[in-house]
């Protein structure tokens, strides 16, 4: 007599509409390229700061850099993010655009608002303009 | 299917034609030699096509520039010298291949013997890189400034590039106990006027005793490991860009509107 396995996992275990923060970063990186015709690209790489590991003490870390391919791949570090396995809360660090060096956001909406502030920050816009100007000179 | 286009631009401002070809043929990887078009101009023109988002790829090779429709992070440099670049192309869901591009010294400035000597070095370099990365899924494309039948193209210690798939499929041949990997050179099948398209990629009708008129300087060579991904009918020597011809009324490369070389287009089922 065979015994059918009893699956105790709920049906909706693999159903999610959550978007990983790194996916949101990659989306924004791609959209920057569209705006600048890829003279300045956003690059999202695993890690937190120079030489740090992707996973530190169970946290996921990513850098968001601006890269100018026509300037021998000049790279400007814009900010980093770090989060645990549950995505939020998430820490944004390494940017002057926000109120303090490290700020914590608690959900996707707060994260998107913070990204908007970083991208609209005067210094960010100046750096992108400068990279474009030098790429076209 | 990944589409590649190689063109020696003869230092001419052909960005509009390049962009048109990229759009018409939905080129994914654009490989240019003798390209003096500023990056900003090329990106501007390439990316004006709807849905196009070309990227400049990182390189220290002075003679070859490569733009990709996908993120340049998928095409990482493995080796660059002044005339040869070898990249690792890793597209999601596909096995990595080595994409190598070459602009070999010209017959105008180098003797055949010097060209051959340099070609042996190129071949040796490619084999070394294949050893490093642990596979021979390699494509070599470029302006070789030599015809497919020249010694260094065919010699075992040269590129070992043969005209028939069946021979290339043996993968290697042994000479004096040394084993050399084959390339398949599909350009052999494009000589002359028996098939549709130009009779070569470069025309030189100089008045001397030995003249071939049409030459096949622009070539793509494929290692046997990639033969199953390549179909001969998807290799073309291009002579038009939409409604614009790249040829004169006599059917020769028109240097006043295009380049002295014709572009080659090929696809790989990566």
The major β-sheet of chain B equals: 6 strands, mixed
Write the element-wise H/E pattern of chain B from the N-terminal end onward.
Answer: EHEHEEEEEHEHEHEEEEEEEEEE
Number of E-type strands of chain B: 19
In round numbers, the mean pLDDT of chain B is 95
Identify the overall geometry of chain A: elongated
How would you characterize this protein structure?
With 137 residues, chain A is an alpha+beta fold. Chain A is built from three helices and six strands, in the order αββββββαα. In chain A, strands 1, 2, 3, 4, 5 and 6 form a six-stranded antiparallel β-sheet that branches. The model of chain A has no long low-confidence stretch (mean pLDDT 89). With 270 residues, chain B is of the alpha+beta class. In chain B, 18% of the residues lie in helices and 29% in strands. Chain B has helices at residues 15-24, 39-46, 112-133, 151-154, 165-168, and strands spanning 2-8, 29-33, 55-56, 64-68, 75-80, 84-89, 97-103, 138-143, 161-162, 172-175, 178-181, 183-184, 202-204, 213-215, 218-222, 236-237, 240-241, 244-245, 264-268. In chain B, α1 runs parallel beside α2. The interface between A and B is medium-sized, with 13 and 14 residues.
How does the SSE layout of this entry go?
The complex is a heterodimer of chains A (137) and B (270).
Chain A: H1 21-36, E1 41-46, E2 55-56, E3 59-68, E4 74-83, E5 90-93, E6 102-105, H2 108-120, H3 122-136
Antiparallel strand pairs in A: 1-3, 2-3, 3-4, 4-5, 5-6
Chain B: E1 2-8, H1 15-24, E2 29-33, H2 39-46, E3 55-56, E4 64-68, E5 75-80, E6 84-89, E7 97-103, H3 112-133, E8 138-143, H4 151-154, E9 161-162, H5 165-168, E10 172-175, E11 178-181, E12 183-184, E13 202-204, E14 213-215, E15 218-222, E16 236-237, E17 240-241, E18 244-245, E19 264-268
Parallel strand pairs in B: 1-2, 7-8, 9-12
Antiparallel strand pairs in B: 1-19, 2-4, 3-4, 5-6, 6-7, 8-15, 10-11, 13-14, 16-19, 17-18
Helix pairs in contact in B: 1-2
């Amino acid at each position: 007599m065979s015994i059918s396995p009893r699956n105790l996992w709920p049906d909706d275990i693999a159903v999610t509409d959550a978007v990983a923060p790194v996916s949101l970063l990659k989306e924004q990186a791609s959209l920057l390229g569209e705006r600048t015709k890829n003279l300045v690209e956003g690059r999202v790489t695993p890690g937190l700061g120079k030489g740090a590991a992707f996973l530190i003490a169970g946290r996921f870390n990513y850098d968001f850099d601006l890269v100018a391919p026509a300037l021998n791949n000049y790279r400007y570090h814009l900010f980093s993010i770090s989060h645990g396995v549950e995505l939020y809360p998430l820490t944004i660090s390494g940017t002057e655009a926000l109120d303090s060096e490290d700020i914590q956001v608690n959900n996707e909406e707060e994260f998107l608002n913070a990204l908007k502030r970083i991208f609209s920050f005067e210094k960010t816009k100046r750096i992108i303009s400068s990279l474009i100007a030098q790429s076209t000179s | 299917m990944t589409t590649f286009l190689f063109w020696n631009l003869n230092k001419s401002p052909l960005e509009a034609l390049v962009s048109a070809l990229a759009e018409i043929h939905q080129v994914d990887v654009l490989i240019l030699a003798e390209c003096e078009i500023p990056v900003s101009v090329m990106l501007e023109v390439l990316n004006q096509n709807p849905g196009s988002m070309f990227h400049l790829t990182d390189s220290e090779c002075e003679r070859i520039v490569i733009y990709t429709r996908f993120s340049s992070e998928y095409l990482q440099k493995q080796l660059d010298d002044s005339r040869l670049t070898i990249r690792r192309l890793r597209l999601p869901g596909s096995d990595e291949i080595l994409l190598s591009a070459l602009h070999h010294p010209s017959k105008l400035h180098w003797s055949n013997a010097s060209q051959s000597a340099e070609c042996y070095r190129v071949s040796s370099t490619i084999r070394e890189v294949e050893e490093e990365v642990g596979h021979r899924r390699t494509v070599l494309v470029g302006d070789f400034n030599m015809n497919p039948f020249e010694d260094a193209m065919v010699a075992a210690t040269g590129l070992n590039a043969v005209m028939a798939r069946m021979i290339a499929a043996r993968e290697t041949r042994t000479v004096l106990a040394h084993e050399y990997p084959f390339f398949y050179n599909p350009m052999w099948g494009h000589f002359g006027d028996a098939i549709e398209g130009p009779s070569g990629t470069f025309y030189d009708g100089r008045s001397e005793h030995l003249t071939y008129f049409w030459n096949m300087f622009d070539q793509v060579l494929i290692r046997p490991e990639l033969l199953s991904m390549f179909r001969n009918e998807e290799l073309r020597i291009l002579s038009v860009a939409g409604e614009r011809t790249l040829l004169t009324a006599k059917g020769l490369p028109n240097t006043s509107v295009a380049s002295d070389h014709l572009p080659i287009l090929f696809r790989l089922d990566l």
